[in-house]
Specification:
The chain folds into 2 domains: 42 residues; 75 residues, Pleckstrin-homology domain (PH domain)/Phosphotyrosine-binding domain (PTB) (PH-domain like, Roll). Helix 1 packs antiparallel against helix 2. It has 122 residues and is of the alpha+beta class. The chain is elongated, with a radius of gyration of 20 Å. The two termini are 25 Å apart. 40% of the residues lie in helices and 27% in strands. A hairpin with a 4-residue loop joins strand 4 and strand 5. The strands form 2 sheets. It has a 4-stranded mixed sheet with strand order 6-5-4-7. This is PH domain-containing protein.
Length: 122
């Protein structure tokens, strides 16, 4: 969504320049574009990678490697305004994932089933 907003800001800037918009039109558009660019640079969505033998959380920023054999289950909890994901390990420990790391559920459910990890949803 942030990338789409960035494209819209760029398009508005090009259209404004083409049509000769007054200078005060550029102030909010370029300010919004600058803030969106900052969001994309400072806080990228990192995601996760699931392979046959390892689950990698936040692979781009601070990777955390969890062997698939150590995972007991993955729990996705939907709240009114956000979604949480907790990885339950066979040792009894739990690992919380950042909300930006949670992939689309349908594809993630299929990938977890492929490697034999149960998915719990609340």
């Amino acid at each position: 969504m942030t990338r789409a907003a960035m494209v819209i800001c760029a398009g508005m800037t090009v259209l404004a320049a083409y049509h000769g918009a007054p200078w005060y039109f550029y102030v909010p558009v370029l300010s919004a574009g600058g803030l969106l660019l900052y969001m994309l640079i400072a806080n990228p969505v990192s995601g996760l990678h699931l392979h046959d033998d390892v689950l990698i959380l936040s692979p781009l920023l601070h990777p955390r490697f969890i062997p698939v054999g150590d995972v007991a289950s993955v729990e996705i909890i939907s709240w009114s305004d956000s979604t949480d994901m907790v990885i339950h390990l066979k040792s009894g420990e739990s690992v919380a994932a950042a909300s930006g790391d949670i992939p689309p559920r349908a594809a993630f459910r299929d990938a977890l089933a492929r490697v034999g990890i149960p998915l719990k949803e609340r």
